[in-house]
Structure formats: structure tokens, C-alpha cells
Amino acid sequence: MVDWSDGKLERPHAWRRAPLRFALAMRAYVMAPWGPRLFPWEATWTRDMTRLAVAFLAVAAVLTLLDAYAINHVRQTRGMLHVVMHAITDLGKSEWYLVPSLVVVLVLAALNWKLREPRIRAQLAFVFAQAGFVFAAVAITGIVANIFKLFIGRGRPILFDEGGIFQFQPFSTQYANLSFPSGHSTTCGALAMILILWFPRWWPAWSAWFLAIAMSRVPAGAHYPSDVVAGFGLGLLYTLWLARWLAVRKAGFTPRPGRMLPALRHARAWYLTPRQS
User: Do residues 109 and 26 touch, judged by C-beta distance below 8 A?
Assistant: First the structure.
């Protein structure tokens, strides 16, 4: 039997424990959102978040007045901006972020953290939690967006000539009837919030960059502007809610009383020297 108490392991036999370590790490990852609330007084959804949701819905509603104009304008315009928007639109594909984050989670789950010093273990925990958060946020927001698409069934711009901007076929699985909300834009909203959580001082830059990628779906002819704004708001607010949900359980985040954005757990490990840890 190997003695794990002092963090020492006979290296020739280390691989034998890898499947067990991996299973335990993945179990901890899956069960983290369902742990007990350690901060029951902290709400996971706030009034400010409600105000943001209402604002996004209001903007999306107003933009329906411009949806027809936007599609006609896009069809008649082929300038440099149109070319640039076409070039960046694929950056909103979820697989660009799901695959790398999942690989990081799986690799770290198989490592033997007990052989590392406390500071390194804290850093591994930070990367593991945040990679898992990225995967969950992007994946679940995509699923939620697809559920809305299925129930709403709004026709895409490719059907514009047939019946205008208000065409609905709920429960249709055809691509042409899955316009609202935009899936790419939902992913962009999730990514914007992830980076806002990591680097809050740069929130205008993250918001502007990913909103630009989301809006590129209009020149691409895949969505109306109202689809884009609704999707972006969905991804942004769901990801924030997920972070706050995890924070009250100290899973990757911790609450900051009176603030909308939770703090990153274990982030301090990156600033400590080996002696301080």
C-alpha cells in the first residue's frame, strides 16, 4: 500500500493511481455546483441583474423595428466592414472554447496534485476550476439558447423574402427556423462575462470585442440584430448567475458582499512566493 500522507509516492507505481485520481477529480467537478450553500445570505440573482435582463429585452424589442432595414442594408452593402465582420464571425463558435477547456480539465484531473507544494496545488485548483467554469458556462448557455430556439422557432433572414421578420414555427428543428436567440451571440456573451470576471477592469474592452463578434452574425446573414442582442444578454447573465451560484458554495469563486461580480478563489496563489505559501 502506498503512503499518501506525506505526499510521497513510489514513482514507478504512480500510474496505477491515475484512474482513481481522475475519477475523484471529475466527481468533485460534477458535484461542485450541488454542494451546500456556505453563504446563505448571498443571493445568486440580484436586482441589478434583473435590471440588466430587462434592458437587454428592451433593446432587443426596439431592434425588431430595425431588423428589416438591417437585412436589406447588408444585402446591398459589400464594404470593408462587411469583409471584416465576415472574417471574425467564426470566433463565436462554441467549439473553439469547449474543446481546449475540456482538455485542460481532463489533463489536470489525471495529475497527482499531492506531490506538489501547497502553492502549486492552489494554482492547479485555480486553473482546474476556471477551465471547468469556461466549459460549463459555454456548454450550458448553448443548450439553453437551443431550447429557446426550439420553442420560439423564429425564421432566419434567409426566409425574409417569404414572410418578413415575423415568421415563427415553434418546435421546428430546421436550421431556417432557429434564429432567436443567436447561438454564436450567446457564446460571445458567456465569454465576455468570463473575461470580465477574470479581468474586471477591462470590462468595456471585453464587452465591445465580443459584442462586435456577435453582431457579425448580421452581415453573415444568419441572424437579425434583435437575435444577436437577446443571445448576448442570455450568455452574459447566465454566466454571471452561474459564477454567483458557485461562489456561495466556494467552488471556483467566493462572494464579495455588495458587489455583483464574485471573486476568483485561489487567485492569490499566483502572487505568493513559495515561502509565503
Answer: yes
Task: For 191-234, write each residue's pLDDT tens digit.
Answer: 999 999 999 999 999 999 999 999 999 998 899 999 999 999 99
Q: Is 253 helix (H, G, I), strand (E, B) or coil?
A: strand
CB atoms within 10 A of CB 262: 22
User: Based on the structure, what is the number of domains in the chain?
Assistant: 1
Q: d(Cα 95, Cα 102) in Å, to the nearest integer?
A: 10
Can you give the CATH number for the domain in which 248 is found?
1.20.144
Query: What is the helix, strand, coil percentage profile of the chain, to 5?
Result: 70, 0, 30
Query: Does the N-terminal peptide bond of residue 181 adopt cis geometry, omega within 30 degrees of 0?
Result: yes
Q: Is the pLDDT at 10 greater than 70, yes or no?
A: no
What does the pLDDT read at residue 20? Answer: 81
Asked if residue 17 belongs to a domain, the reply is: no
Query: At 15, is the pLDDT very low, low, confident or very high (cuts 50, 70, 90)?
Result: low
Give percent of the chain above pLDDT 70: 91
Q: How many helices (H) and strands (E) does the chain have?
A: 10, 2
Model confidence, pTM: 0.90
DSSP-based three-state secondary structure for 217: coil
Q: Nearest CA to 67 among 145, 169, 160, 149? A: 160
User: Is residue 188 domain-resident?
Assistant: yes
In the prediction, which pLDDT does 273 show? 56
Cell of 28: 468533485
**Structural contact between residues 207 and 201, judged by C-beta atoms closer than 8 angstroms:** no
User: Measured between alpha carbons, how far is 101 from 86 in angstroms, rounded to an integer?
Assistant: 26
